[in-house]
Amino acid sequence: MEIESNAFARYQLLQYISLHGNHLTTIQCSSFNGLTRLTTLDLSNNQLNISTEHTSDVFNNLISLHNLDISRNFNSFDYYYPFLGNLVNLQFLAMDLIHNSDFQKAGLPNLINLEKLVFDYCYANDLQNRTFTYLSRNIKELQFRNCHHIKSAEAGVLMPLKKLKTLRIHKSAMSLSDALMILHPFENKEMETIEFIRMNSGYREPKVFASPEAVILTSEMMRHLQKICVSNLILAECGIVDFKPKSLLYFDRPECLKKVVLSGNRFPMLNKYQELLPLTHKLVNLTLFDYSYNPLSYAGEIQYIHNDQPFIDINTRLLCDQISLYNDDRNALEKKSTKYIDRSYYTATQEYVDKSQAAEFRLKLPDNLHTLRLSHFLRKLEFQGKILILTAPNLQYLDISYYNADWFPIIQFNGPNKLRFINFSGTKSSNFLPPTSIPELLNTTNVKMEYARLGHMFHKYPNVLNFIPSVEVLDISNNNIWFLPENAFSNNTEIQNLSISYNLLDDIPKAVLSLSNLQLLDIRNNFIQSINETVHKWLEQQNLKYGNTFQLFLKGNRLRCTCDTLEFVKWITKTNISLDKPKRDYWCTLRNGTYMTISEVMQKYHELFIDCNSGHWLRIGIALLTSFVVLTIPVALVVNFRWQLAYWIYRRFRLVIEERMKSKSKYDIYISYGDQSLNWTVNTLIHKLENSWKMITCLDDRDILGGEICSDAIADSISNSRNVIFVIDDSFQDRIWGKFEIQRAKYEKYAGNLQQIIIIKKHNITVQDFPFELRQIWDDVIFIEWRENEDSVGWDKLRIALFQKVL
């Protein structure tokens, strides 16, 4: 593609042009003529031969240009830079670092206002002391991205950049030792940010499998960095596996450090607390520390926290996810020049107090520390039986998501805490919830608990969320929640935004109706088929209460458009609630199993639902006819046969009374079982039936007294039982009286003296191996296949079978 001459001549007031990623190959000399007010031009990620002679004239007339991005157009080692010396107002420049760069011929010394220079891709093999000799002396920020070709750097390469305050190097095959060495010119100076990410000689070409080499920090490697007063320090994904004494955080001016990121490495900081302890009290201005992604290896993309969003705003639509420290979006000019949050580790005063088998682990965080992140943390912790007493006067953001340790300490706060946001996602809830390891967080307004296995916890502990009474934004998505107790949010009445998406709910839980402050409900990707009238009336009340600003997210559910859900379909098309699907175009399932959007359903309303009303009137007619017949025939019979009926009722009433008097059984259940199931029957089944369900059971070897004829005793016991349970396994065929018990149960069932015959299948026995006598009465029994370690479904089936007659 080509940009023709005078292509923008009609737009003389234009100030911003982005031509990023448009497969451009040619730009004419006069393509940008007339754009005297243009301040930003993005030509990145094209196929321009930008080093051709005439390209220099392209930019000559852009006298007001402040931002220029020509990166990702140099795809050869033989290219050279166009002349940019006339752009005297240029403040931001993004380009590639090509082989044998000649910045003098490119006119870069003339760019006296240039403050930020970004090398988006590097073709150079090494950085020599003379490489940046002819750069502008006023550059304050220098960035290197995707510099896989750079293998080495000389110590004085940055010597010409006297005013440099920010140095960022991302994805380089340069060794960390060389990267730390080039900091030599900044000793005893102040710098804003030093950011080294994926700085390791093990990282080669991006398409080749990268494996970082093991790096051990030494005081010699850190000697230049230790003499710099740096505010933000990032040494992430650099392959650090250990550090020697007087290296890590051993700075001449530790009070300068405000934010530190050490994520994506593999060194055990906690094991060296004795060395770091004397330094921690000097980190008086530390505000952020990130020591995340600390497993032996991590295959996914590491996420960082953006400096502009240290907390999640409770007024935002949804809980924000962590933002990558460097976004691969190449439109660099559309991105602000941001600084990045680095999480400060606990500057701790640590103290062990031995108390027989337990100990208190005291941790005092710096007064200014407000953000602590220990996400994706994997290691064995010696915390078992210990209490972590935390002094955190200003800690507001705590991220312990995907914290996979063998044991979670019991946490107590020494004094008040100001925690506003806490992230438990991916951390097994049973580690820190009842029996509780987390104290009541009175000031926490934002809580994220994705992938925390809460579904099982709600079943055991309905009030599991009581420890966050002030929460306003709560995310409990992806937790396999199929059931929410009605009192699940009884102590969380301040909730405004609630996300229960990606769970197993088949209806909006009644617990939600207790949240009078709710303004956003996210129930996407559940199994909801419709919303009943009670719930959508409550939703309308909430929407009216908050001025038609209520938000409901429904995408990904299994909505149904049938006669039974007709009122819901009508409501979804008329409601003023803000939904997450434009024009209410949710997919729903019709009666015939086909799919259609709700808007299409409403267009074909009469065609699809014509039978709904006819069925309604048909049911009314049938009901009226039935009522007439039911009322007329009995009246006629009563009038004509009143004396005969009176005598018949008297006789039947007498027989029923006599039968009821005889039906008082001695046992609720007679149980027959094989030898393999003896232990389970006695210790589990009998315990549940007698102790929990208060039923009277009969076992032949426990309740039938000696001295009687065995067959008569068994027959008498079965006839005096309301139900019979056969526990069938491989050994049941060997039971001496098994066939007799089956025949007797069959007799009592057909005689009407027995309520249920229940078969519980244990172990791996197949139905074909059942006794022949059982298969003869298969239609008259209730069959329950009992899986190993069954703890809910089997019991529910058994309870229904035993109590349905009573109910």
TrEMBL record:
Family per similarity comment: Belongs to the Toll-like receptor family.
Organism in which the protein naturally occurs: Mytilus coruscus (Sea mussel)
Location (main, coarse): membrane
InterPro entries, per the entry: Leu-rich_rpt, Leu-rich_rpt_typical-subtyp, LRR_dom_sf, TIR_dom, Toll_tir_struct_dom_sf
Record keyword Acyltransferase present: no
Origin superkingdom: Eukaryota
Pfam families: LRR_8, TIR
Residue span(s) of domain TIR: 665-804
GO molecular function: signaling receptor activity
Location of the protein in the cell: Membrane
Annotated GO biological process: signal transduction
Keyword Signal set for record: yes
Bilayer topology term: Single-pass membrane protein
Keywords: Glycoprotein, Leucine-rich repeat, Membrane, Receptor, Repeat, Signal, Transmembrane, Transmembrane helix
Membrane-crossing residue ranges in chain numbering: 617-643
CC annotations in GO: plasma membrane
Name under which the protein is recorded: TLR2
